[in-house]
Structures are given as structure tokens and as C-alpha cells.
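Memo to structure team: turn this sequence into C-alpha cells by end of day. - J.P.
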Amino acid sequence: MSGDDQLKGYHGFARKKLEGAGVKIWSIVRIINPDATYEGILLPRSELGDEEHVVLKLKTGYNVGVKITEETVIEEVGYSPGHYALPERKVEFKPGKPLVSLIGTGGTVASRLDYRTGAVIPAFTPQELFSAVPELEEICNLETVSLFEIFSEDMQPEYWVQIAKKVAEEINRGVDGVIVAHGTDTMHFTSAALSFMLKDLTVPVVLVGSQRSSDRPSSDAAINLISSAIVASRSDIAEVVVCMHGSSSDDYNLIHRGTRVRKMHTSRRDAFRTIGDIPLGVVANGKIRMLRNDYKRRSDHGKVTVDSKIDPKVVLLYTYPGMQPDIIEHIVKTGYHGIVLAGTGLGHCPKTIIPQIERAVKDGIAVAMTSQCLYGFVGMNVYERGRDLLKIGVIPCGNMLPETAYVKLVYVLGHTRDADEVREMMTSNMCGEITSGEPYNAYLILQGVEES
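Reply from structure team:
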């Protein structure tokens, strides 16, 4: 552990008890409470943690928080210092194997856990990745580029442009596929953005992340990375896709189109689902099985370009009962150029905000309507409220997902502010974001593969 603080992250009462016992981070400790006894490696804590608990790495590999009281007895029974290096693994270029570029945007795409110490060792260079996930070496030749390191919740539209340019650069220098390692919270925003910006793709662009970190026995990181490498190196796809767990087990991954995918669970490993459609394919046992054929195919010819014109002054706004008009007024006053509404049902909003929406449209602000139901199409001709919104110029977005519509409006307004042109672009299908209908099996939990 770097630095002089031997009890990093601990403070208050817990720190005093640890100091009194003469223990430090990486000490193997026995904590005796009146109701239970715990033994494990003392791990660092976040500085935001409370002062009544300590964190141990148990022999099982799981972390556990233990409450410390006046009656607690703490004993040091050993010491196991953390090691922050992966063993070196010689990497040789293997002729005949595809070349894949992995672009890192933040987080840990893969890592290996030192179960003695609890240290999670991040892996990013080819040597580190092949050491942490040796199966990769049998799939492809791998090169890595660290573009930036941010949490995905801190992603900005201008970062989408940087990612798109780096992806195009890698493809145009001759790689056979690209993997973008990305945090899961906003992965579906980035996959949509890359889908709109990258033109004339010739190889797969695969976004991947992990729902559970590698210090957990149930981590999905390695299998997601392996499946993504298979898609990037072997598939005949030439689109932006997301490749993540398809079930809560480790039996298969799904290949989702970048504009139809959404994170649908906070913690499940199969959190990413194709909405209102079925995925492009499945990766299982090292093989790809396509579920549909309406996708762009890989090509050996052509140059990838980036259409990076964007206008970030767009807001995504969910409507709800009791919504007040001053919200729309504030958006207008603060200079936004576009509003994507995630309306109720078929694309509705409270009548209290309709005058403000009309004013926004008259002021040149594009207002688009999606449904917070996620599944199904907006149908603004069905009921009076929808027809009223159409009359004042609200743009219906079919079955486009709210997040995808937000990204698309950022992209469209970068090209034009003309109302008719914006409407034409928003209602036209560019890269699978709007479909002509929903398959009968597109509303099922297992995403259309349950009969296979």
C-alpha cells in the first residue's frame, strides 16, 4: 500500500480500536464479537465509510463488513502485504490470427484478484490482459489504447467524439475489430452515439464492461471480454454493438445493436437487454450464432469516417403527474436547443406544461416525444392529448428509446436547427434506432432465444 497511512480509510471509533490492537491494512486479523468471530485480511476502506465497521477479505474471497463495538476484541494473527503487479507474460504476434484493438475509457476491463491479500490488480496492457484472461491469446492478437480514465456516469458528449475518432483511426490503420471498454452505467448512451457518428464501418465495434468487479467470485468481466474478443475478431458484423451476459449464468453472451440496447438492472450480470426487438446474435462456447440477418456485413474495402458535429444543449426529461410548467420555462430560459420527453403511455404529458412546450417550439427548440414504457411505439394520433402535442410541433419518435432519442437529437442539432429538417432526421431510421414493428418475442425476458 502506498503512502504512510497504515489504516487507509478508517476513522473515528473503528480506527481507535484498530490502532489499539496494533493492526494495519493487510493484517490478518481475528475479530471477536459477542455473537460471532471473523477472520480475514483487513482491507482499505473508502474515506466516506462510517466509523463503526471494518472490512475483511474472507478465505472464501468475499468481502464482509464487521461492526465494531466496545466489546469487540481484535487480534492480529498474521500479515499478508498487497502486491500490485501481474506476472509478466511474453506476448508474441501470431500470424494468421486477427488483430483487435481495445480502447479503454475508464474502469477495469479485466483484473486478477490476489486472494491472499484482497488486492485487485487492474489489467490493461496486452501482457497484463493475457495474464489475467489467458483465453484471449487463443482468440486474437490484441493491442490496447488508453484513451481516458473516467467513470461512465461522468461521460460527456464531447468524449463520444473522441472515442469515435480513435475507433475510426484504429480501423483505418487495419485492425480486424475494435473493443471499447466502458463502464456499464452509460454504455448504451455511448453505443448509440458511436452508431450515429461512425460512417461506413467495415468491422465490428464492440462495447463491453462488467457488472461485477473481479474481486467477486461471480464477476462477469472475463467472460464478457472473451465474448467481445470473439465478436470483434470473428463475426461478420460491421456495426456498433454491445456484448454482455445474456443470462445470470455464464452460459452465453448476447450481441445487442448499439441503438436498441439498454441497461435494465442495477446489478444483475444480464442487465443489458435489446428493447422492442431481438438481439443480433449469441456467443456461446466460443462460437457465434446470429439470430437475424438484417445487419451490415464486414468488408475489406472502404474508409471509416466520423461525423462528429453535435449540439450538447439537449435535455432528456421524464413527464410525471404534478409536473409543473416552470421546468420547461427554465429549460427555455437557459438556452437549450432540444428537449426529449419520455412521455407516459403512447406519448403523453400533463396539460399543465403544454403551453410551455408550445412556446419552446415557437422559440426554435426541438421537442421530441418518446415513451417511458420503453416497449411499444408512441401513438400520438390515438388520443386527444397526443393530437394536441402533434399540432404544436412535437416530434413523434416511433419506438426509439428515450436515451437513444436524446443522443440522436444531440447529433441531429449538430447538423441543423431548421425545424423541418430536424423533424425529417429524427423520424427517419438511420441505424436501427427505429423499427417497422416489434417481433412477437421481443417482449420476453430471455430476448428471443428461449426456444433454441
